[in-house]
Amino acid sequence: MPWNIETSYLQLPEEFYHKQTASKFPAPQRVLTNEPLAEMLGLNSKDLDNSVLCGVVKASGSEPFAQAYAGHQYGHFTFLGDGRALVLGEQVTPQGERFDIQLKGSGRTPFSRMGDGKAALGPMLREYLMSEAMHYLGIPTTRSLAVLTTGEPVFRETVLPGAILVRVASSHIRVGTFEFAARLNDISKLRSLANYTIKRHFPDIQGSDNSYLELIRLVSQRQAKLIASWLLVGFVHGVMNTDNVSICGETIDYGPCAFINSYDPSAVFSSIDRHGRYAFSNQPSIGLWNLARFAETLLPLIDSDLGKAKEKAEGALNIFATAFQDTWRTGMGLKLGFSRVDAMELKLMERFLTLLELHRADFNNTFRELSLTDAFQSDFFRKTDVVEWRRDWLTVQSQNTLSIEDNHKLMQSKNPAIIPRNHLVEEALQEAQLGNFTLFHRLLKAVRTPFQIDPEDLDLGFPPTKEQEEGYQTFCGT
Ligand code: AMP
Ligand code: MG
User: Fold this and answer.
1) Which ligand is nearest to the CA of 175?
2) If pLDDT is split at 50, 70 and 90, which confidence band does 132 have?
3) pLDDT for 336-382, tens place per residue?
4) What is the pLDDT of residues 146-174, one digit of tens each?
5) 18, 65, 84: residue to mutate for ligand 1 pocket, most atoms within 8 A of CB
6) Catalytic annotation on 243?
7) 294 C-alpha to ligand 2 centroid (Å)
8) Confidence check: pLDDT of 476 > 80
């Protein structure tokens, strides 16, 4: 089946988008194609023509547009919109699922402000690699269908090769889209967006008593689960502005994200996050703050009495804390091989994290080591306080109904052997920008089976040396 694009988003009032075509690029060339994703979308290699993927030729049914949205960036409200992206429309797959196809780096739009509307190759390759890693870790995420170089330079601090990323998302509706809608000061337009979102992502609540309140609940629940799953693999998103919070609960916008190495709850990598607003352990509370901004936009739809609307919305937001805690506790329990989580298991979890922090142990590799029956070789497991912890852990383990072997297998399926290590990602991107994709492809292959590691890829699992780790910073990648 070829491209089968619909543009249901264009049913929304016209303030929500700006129809336009992509800039023309001198010499588009494909550098990456995501075959498994293309297949899932029902596309074959013939459909993946560069002229379609860079927006020169419209795929069947496509009518490209830039989306309007707003957002709180580092706590401050701003009007935004797709300043360097165009949605081609929604590919409806042979299974009847609907995915936005978005070109990122496709040129200026009315929302570009001071920007050039373009993207550089390095950050687009980074998004491709990181989003694939997240997908195969089982974490909801937007994905990447292809990366093309445009044949044009982009000017940042230095001159860089320009690129387009073809992004695939369940949708690009964000908290910021609702913030934009609320500021149109027209309740019917806000209702259109809410109804469209419900129909597209939460059809089960259509026609329920107060579907807008239900919407707050479901969006909060998905965000809570998402953020808990980030914490379980040591992921720092880096720029959790409300325009980067997807309503359907996918990880979106891989600008300054990174995985932690040694466990540090206050880890921040983004060069512009000077006060640690989006630090590793702040992510749940920021998530809730973002959802409060979402809930505020829906108040007029919830009750004509503002006081009552607020009370109901606050009640709906309460689900965030419970859903976060449930997902985190169950997930952390499984990582440690607990078949249930009660007070004793909880205490062991907390103690383990304290020990990781105290001894600056590598977050993912230490969990992985625990899941291997022949392990406990590292210095960490020889420390007196860790030996004591392990003794208590074994006592709890012995009450597990699964055999030791099965339990360790289960733990191995929850504790990745491979995450995209920052120092390796940087090295792979440096080389790829010079035309050598060897390390990039090795990493990509490895992160696609994160719970098992090929013997020849053991080096990809090593944590960085002190020098490699020190002062590591990420950038927004604009
Ligand atoms: P981001 O940091 O990618 O979430 O982007 C925040 C906002 O800045 C969005 O509205 C983007 O569309 C816009 N933006 C980012 N980079 C550029 C660029 N190079 N040109 C125009 N707009 C941009
Ligand atoms: Mg963004």
Assistant:
1) 2
2) very high
3) 999 899 999 999 999 999 999 999 999 999 999 999 977 677 899 99
4) 999 999 999 999 999 999 999 999 999 99
5) 84
6) yes
7) 16
8) no
Q: How far apart are CA 344 and CA 337, in angstroms?
A: 13
| Calpha distance 28→252 (Å, rounded) | 25
Return the best residue to mutate from 20, 74, 82, 112 for the ligand 1 pocket (most ligand atoms within 8 A of CB).
Answer: 112
What is the per-residue pLDDT across 173-200, written as a single tens digit (0 to 9) for each? 999 999 999 999 999 999 999 999 999 9
- What CA–CA distance (Å, rounded) separates 464 from 436? 22
Dist. CA 140–CA 78, nearest whole Å: 27
Quick one: DSSP state of residue 257? -
Residues 34/142, Cβ–Cβ less than 8 Å: no
Beta bridge pairs of residue 66: 18
* Rounded distance from Cα 69 to ligand 2 centre (Å): 10
3-state secondary structure 145-204: EEEEEEEEEEECCCEEEEEEEEEEECCCCEHHHHHHHHCCCCHHHHHHHHHHHHHHHCHH
Catalytic residue among 47, 82, 100, 243: 243
